[in-house]
Amino acid sequence: MNNSLLDHPTLSARYFYPWPNHFENPFFVTGDGYRLGCRYLKVSDNFPTIIHFHGNGESVQDYLGDFEQRIAGLGANLLLAEFRGYGMSSGEPALAAMLEDVRLIVEASAIPPEDIIFFGRSLGSLYALHGASLYPQAAGLIIESGLADPLERILVRIEPRDVGATMDELKAAVGRHFNQQAKISSFTGRVLIMHTRNDDLVSVSHAERLYEWANEPKELVIFQRGDHNTILPANEEEYFAKVRDLVRQVSTGLPTKSDS
Known about the structure:
10 helices; single chain; alpha/beta
């Protein structure tokens, strides 16, 4: 599969902000010539597992500690997925090529898809939604400040000629790999979409479109406080209450297993 346009070094350099860091007990996932330094907090075999994909200006390290403990307190395990080149991962970030990492992470986790809740924030929504399309039987999908139209954000960073393409060629490449409408409409689990009314980077219209395309059961939450980068701290209690509700709703359908 040729991902050359969307994985062009110019686009990668303008879209991703990788930097190294280290933390204890990484969960490594091996790819072809690289490995991903993820983190897996497993609390109970009887809990669903959230696989979380962060934004392009964040890393797994930003979600250690408080976020982990809040999620555990809601009754979910948490696997924090890392991008290539970020944190403790090797390799180089690449927009389309990293779609392949979603399956690698799920397979390495050994979690049955029906026990998984995919969770994507901002750019990470592309990978969470890809996971939902790969595993339409997954328990749930949470999109925070997500993208309905990735081309819009790509064109903020490059012009087609920067990657040696015409506009039609770039549109076609995005459509092949990031057809968000097709991906979310194929998902059969419970969906939660959260956004802020005053998002200064990704218009709230993205959330409205994703919600329109999603199947029931689904919920759209538009916060009146905060912006793209402060959605969680500005709405912390309601934010986690909505995640808790989804976790509880999907947990009722999971079989009970012995704790490891």
